[in-house]
Amino acid sequence: MWIIVVIICAALAAFLYKYVFRTPGPNPFDIDTRAPLKPLVTQKKEKNKVLKQGFLASKIPEKLDAIVIGSGIGGLGVAVLLAKVGKRVLVLEQHDRAGGCCHTFTEKGFEFDVGIHYIGDLLEHKPFRCMLDQLTNGQLQWEPLDNPFDQVVLGPPGNRRTYPIYSGRDRFPDELKKFFPGEEAAIDEYMRLVKVWYAYKALPPGHNIWFLGLLKLIPVPLAKFLVYTGLANRLSFFFRMASRSVTEVVNELTKNNDLRAIFSYIFGTYGNMPKDASFSMHSLMVCHYLTGAWYPIGGASEIAYHMIPIVEKAGGAVLVRAPVNRILFNDNKEAIGVSVIKGQEEIHVHAPMVISNAGIFNTYQQLLPKELQAMPAIQKQLGMMKNGAGGLSIFLGLTGTKEDLGLKADNYWIFTEHNMDELVETYLKGNREESAKSVPVLFVASPSAKDPTWEERSPGKCTLSLVTFANYEWFGEWKDDKVTNRGTDYKELKQIFCDSILEVVMSVFPKITRDKVEFIEAGTPITNTHYIGASKGEIYGADHGTARFSAECNATVRPQTPLKNLYLTGQDVFVCGFAGALAGALTCGSAILNRNLHLDAIALAKKTKRVDTKKLK
């Protein structure tokens, strides 16, 4: 018996060693490609030459190695990784500008970011920062937010409690203890639980979350063995805690309702009510900001602006106004290219590999032929996932400086009370007009206050980005209307949301008054569908509930699809958000290049730290 166990363990160790440490493919992180910092480009025309290159058949590069559908960070990320090892990649974007949720738009002189509000884990020489530096050749710069970086507001006017959230592995809990005397044990245990996924026992820091990536890269039979024997859960605390909800965990820690709310508030960054959210996913977000929060200098469009030239230098291209209507396959069910709609014409573009950043639902349900959609392996993956929560954004343009308006480089999470599950559930189940009058959770951020270049670029103006949840069904009746002419009823519903949310903002920020509002517009779930291709208006891709983070789901939904030469990248491969989508790109790149790029990034981060340290001496 013991001999059999030893043989199985030895075989397992050999397989894991092969797929963790053996890296035979080309390495995009082989050398440090950071270049001397160039001046910030502020002229829109110059930036648009990079970001708004329209699709034409004549612009398609010859002898493509890969086609990427979608230019969000998941798509651009894997395109740059491939370009860095000499691959010629074509990125196709259906919108009129590249960047996905990293794009910006301008209305009445105000520049608005649509999806980048704050990014964590960007300390110098850490692997995530190293990845971003290499993917932009060191041209993307980051400005730290204030500390506290978040302010959590609970309760109605007259009974509001504001709790500042600080970064710092010690300062975060220490500051909480000042507000909640007598709850020290609960706070310490909460911190132990949220950090244990990151550094468990004697294994390397971060091994728990990267084990999630490993499960998506090792051969399917081995992944299934780890799942069905229970070894995946034993090896990773992340998977062991994945089935427990945030509400379940925090309610065991304390009976203090405000503290429960503070433990749970960051659920808005991934889109599930605490009672439906996986504590593992929640812990990931809490730890993401423990070392601080940052914002891209020059705005979110800087991200795509500095990535696209790397794709082009390798002979590739990033083309917009290029809606892909289907993926092309040969008789052997191998992906061989895509079809792009140009006016009334279909243009076929061929490549030996197709990578989709369009999301699992768009890819499998919209871009595959019917007979391939029906494949059991495809249906199994779809059955494990569901659409995430719809998002509603309000873009506010204000007259005045950040000092005039009382704005800082931080964020506000505003809740009508501490009972978050009940509030959000009642809101989402309610009549749309009534729900619009009483939004229970609101995220408020000022991109203009976070960006040190803003005042020079847009003097005397400020912006606010306001985000909440909204049912796709509330707006579904207008989904087929022209985006600029969806009728009076649609505009009236948006106006109800705008009015009620503006009242909340003015009550929390007393220096903001109606006479300071120069521009206000709402983007609904069907707006998200039109501009970023979100099939049900979701802003975080597939749902991030407990089922999403089972070991079985993560072993099944992987970059390699059941169809040869078709890959998935982005949020739905890993987790949501900017960092999650980039991790999805790294995992996809690892599968394609047959090497562990996560380890490569870690190795380069250590190397650049040594080199930079020597330069300073």
Automatic annotation (TrEMBL):
It comes from Salmo trutta. One of its GO terms (cellular component) is endoplasmic reticulum membrane. Its EC number is 1.3.99.23. It is an enzyme of class 1 (oxidoreductase). One of its GO terms (molecular function) is all-trans-retinol 13,14-reductase activity. It catalyses: all-trans-13,14-dihydroretinol + A = all-trans-retinol + AH2. It is a peripheral membrane protein. Belongs to the carotenoid/retinoid oxidoreductase family. CrtISO subfamily. It is found in: Endoplasmic reticulum membrane. Pfam families: NAD_binding_8. The gene is RETSAT. It comes from the Eukaryota. This is All-trans-retinol 13,14-reductase. Its cofactor is NADP(+); NAD(+); FAD.
